[in-house]
Amino acid sequence: MEKENLSVVLHSQGDLRLEQRPIPEPGPNEVLLQMHSVGICGSDVHFWQNGRIGDYVVKKPMVLGHEASGRVVKVGSAVKNLKEGDRVAVEPGVPREIDEFFKSGKYNLSPTIFFCATPPDDGNLCRFYKHSANFCYKLPDNVTYEEGALIEPLSVAIHACRRAGVTLGSSVLICGAGPIGLVCLLVAKAMGASQVVITDLSADRLVMAKELGADFPLTVKREDGPEELAKRVEGLLGAQPHITIECTGVESSVQTAIYATRPGGVVVLVGLGAAMTTIPLLNAALREVDIRGVFRYCNTWPIAIAMLASKKVNVAPLVTHRFPLEQAVQAFETTRQGQGVKIMLKCDKTDQNP
After folding, report:
1. Assuming Cys at both sites, which of 32, 51, 84, 180 could form a disulfide with 74, CB separation 3.0 to 4.6 Å?
2. Exposed e or buried b for every residue in 197-222, given b needs 16+ CB within 10 A?
3. From the centroid of its chain, how far is CA 36?
C-alpha cells in the first residue's frame, strides 16, 4: 500500500493547501478507505471563501470533502458487514451517541453528530480516510464510484422530497437549478411528480434541467417580483403547484415559493440563506401552506443505491468536470467561478475512471 496521504486542507479563510497527512489506523468498528471520487460541494467552497457557515467556524486546519466513495483497504477487528476490496459510498454523518434523535430515526438532528468537513470534523478529500463501517454502503457492480459519490447530494433530494410529500401526480416547483435543484428534479420525477417547473437565473443550467426531465424550465431575472413570478408559474402549470422545493436560500426566492404554492400545499426549504429572512408568513398561514425545513438527510443511502442500481435515476450527466487530487486548488477555483454543474476530484492515482 502507498505511504502517502495527500489531503486537501483548509487552514483558514482563503487558505487552501495540499499537504501530506499520516494514513489513519481504523478502530474496531471502522474501515480504512482508499478514496476514489469526491465531489466538491457549495459548502466546501463557502468554508474556503468565508471560513464559516453560520455557527460552524473553521478554527483549526480541516480536511474538506463529504461527497465520497472509495474502496476498503483495511477492516477494523469488529467489522462484519465489509471486507477488503469492497467498493463503498460514504454517508458523512455519523451519530456519536444513542440519543432521542438517534432512537427516533432522525439521527441527522443529533446535536453531537460527526459530520465530514463541518468544523471541527475532518472530511475525506484525501487518498486515505477512515470511517464508521456502519455508514459505508456497498456499491453494486453496476453503480460507478462517481455515482456512489453523488449519493450524498441525491440524499438531500430524497430527504427533501420525502419531507415535501412528493407522490404520484404531484405538481412541483423547484427554485434553483444548481446541483441540488437538479437532483431534486430527478428524485421528484422518480417519485411520481407529473409536472415540474424549475427556475434559475442561468439559461445554461436550465438547458441541463430540460435534458434531465423538467417540464417547464423558467428563466428568472434578479429584478422579477416574487408575486409576478408566482403568477408565471401558475400560468405554466395551469394551476398552483402542490409543492415547492426552495434550493437557493435567496430571500426573494423564498417569498416566491410561498406565493406560488397552492393553498394546503407544502414549501420545503433546502437552500441556506441569511439567518434572518423576511417572508410573507401571513400569506402562508391564511392559506395553510406548510413550511418545512430540511437538515441534510437520514436513512437515504439504501434507497439511493436501489434507485441508481435499478436505473430509475441517472445522476451521471451531472458530472461536468474531473480533476486529479493534485489539482484540487484549480478544481475549487473552477467551482467558485460557477463553471459546470458537479466537479469531481479523483483521489486514486491508479484509477481515474468514473
Report:
1. 32
2. bbbbeeeebbebbeebbbbbbbebee
3. 18
Q: Alpha helices, DSSP H only, in the chain?
A: 42-50, 100-103, 145-149, 151-164, 179-190, 203-211, 226-237, 251-260, 281-286, 301-309, 328-336
Tell me, rounded to whole angstroms, the distance of Cα 318 from its chain centroid: 12
CB 93 within 8 A of CB 117: no
For residue 1, the model assigns a pLDDT of 64
Beta strand extents in the chain (DSSP E only): 6-12, 15-20, 30-39, 52-53, 56-57, 62-63, 67-75, 87-90, 93-94, 114-115, 128-132, 136-138, 171-175, 195-200, 216-219, 243-246, 266-269, 290-293, 319-324, 342-346
In this predicted structure, the answer to whether residue 3 has a pLDDT above a threshold of 90 is no
pLDDT for 21 equals 97
Which residue in the block uniquely carries the three cell numbers 400545499?
Answer: 265
What pLDDT does residue 202 have? 96
In whole angstroms, what is the distance from residue 113 CA to residue 128 CA?
Answer: 22
- How does DSSP classify residue 119? T
